[in-house]
Amino acid sequence: MRQKAERCVVTFRTTAGAMAMESACREAGLPGRLIPVPRSITAGCGLCWAAPPSVREALEELVIKKRLDADGIYAVII
Q1: What SS3 state is found at 15?
Q2: CA–CA separation, 2 and 31 (whole Å)
Q3: Is the confidence at residue 52, as pLDDT, over 90?
Q4: What is the 3-state secondary structure (H, E, C) of the chain?
Q5: Is the pLDDT of residue 56 over 80?
Q6: Are 69 and 49 in contact (CB under 8 A)?
Q7: Is 19 exposed, middle or buried (0-12, 13-18, 19+ CB in 10 A)?
Q8: Which of 10, 37, 35, 38 is nearest to 24 (CA)?
Q9: pTM metric for this prediction
Q10: Which of 10, 27, 35, 37 is deepest in the core (most CB within 10 A)?
Q11: Cβ of 68: how many Cβ atoms within 10 Å?
């Protein structure tokens, strides 16, 4: 069983928004991946970007800079 750890989770209203985040993060060299939204959070499309908490500030800046369709940014233990 995988050990639970804190992750920075970015949720989206649409699948297109989640895929745009994946593309922008890859382009910017930021770590993370798309995963199903944890049960403790609700989101429109059911996908979220999960990354180490150390890159939260960079993710927030990227969302603003690229005008990504983010619904919310959370710290979650998953």
Answers
A1: helix
A2: 19
A3: yes
A4: CCCCCEEEEEEECCHHHHHHHHHHHHHHCCCCEEEECCCCCCCCCCEEEEECHHHHHHHHHHHHHCCCCEEEEEEEEC
A5: yes
A6: no
A7: middle
A8: 10
A9: 0.93
A10: 10
A11: 19
